[in-house]
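User: I'm preparing a small set of examples for a lab meeting where we compare how different chains pack in three dimensions. I only have the primary sequence for this one, and I'd like the structure in token form so I can line it up with the others. Please keep the answer compact; I'll paste it straight into my notes.
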Amino acid sequence: MLNYVIRRLFYTIPILLGVMIVTFSLFFVIGSRESMARSNLGPRAKPEDVKNWIAQRGYDRPLIINLSQNDPYYSAARPWHYSILMDQIGRFARFDFGESDFNREDIGIRIRKGAIPSLLVTLPAAIIGLLLAIGLSLLQVFYRNRAVDTGMTISCVVMMSIVPMAYIIAMQAFMAIHLRWFPVFGFDEMAGWGSLRFLILPIIIMTVLGLGSDVRFYRSIFLEEVAQDYVRTARAKGVSNPRVLLTHVLKNGAISLITVVVASLPLLIMGSILIESFFGIPGLGSLVVDAISKQDFATVRSAVFVGSLLYLVGLVLTDICYAIADPRIRLS
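Assistant: Understood. Below is the structure token output for the 332-residue chain.
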């Protein structure tokens, strides 16, 4: 398994290079460093101010390689790899994301600080949502084709039909503004355990957001397992329905559950953009929103790279969990 994991990790290198080249092309080839400078400085910025902005951020070098003398940023005193693309590839390989284009803050520090508030919201919501979805879907399978199953199916479809923003606005208005059970907005990082009161309502909303679709998906997985021969054999031996569901069906449906759960782990770290924006939680989701609104191109590029890296690591973890959950699977 170790050789497989190492090989898969090496496979991520060309994919990440592709991601960096695509984002580089969007900002520097399709767009331009001059347009980025004017987006930050304003359309009436003086040419010398634009030039200084470009130089301060290290964009005063050739785009790809330093070989063409026709390039206005060509420097004969510099090596061939003195370029924006090579500089960014080298920085990202060292996980050095540089400084923000907007306020010159260290992007790596901002990402590390933002990951903690994001995880404080998304991780509890994911665990609670997973347990609720599995429990409710097993309950539907236990009472399949009965009134309980039909009612829960209709409820799940209704929940899936409501847009996430409607949940956020309605629950924030009712539970925070009307009932005053929770703070409406804000997050106090220095309050320790007292900061939990800012997180309870976002966690509830995040749990409800994915509950309908998860219950429907898990129900279909467990119904497929119920129709297998091993379930009929267990029932023929006199095993009760609750035990069949909890010991046999749940265990054998773990492969499909792993696909959803482990692959979603990178999203937990990246946070929820809507939740963090509406509740003022300084996580990675709100960091990306702020970077887009402030034309902070360096932060956006770094966030895309981190998100891609986490997604690829999640795929490797999914394969490893497959082998752990099912001994018939061999990674080679």
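A couple of notes for your slides: Residues 19-93 form one domain. The longest helix spans residues 107-142.

User: Perfect, thanks.
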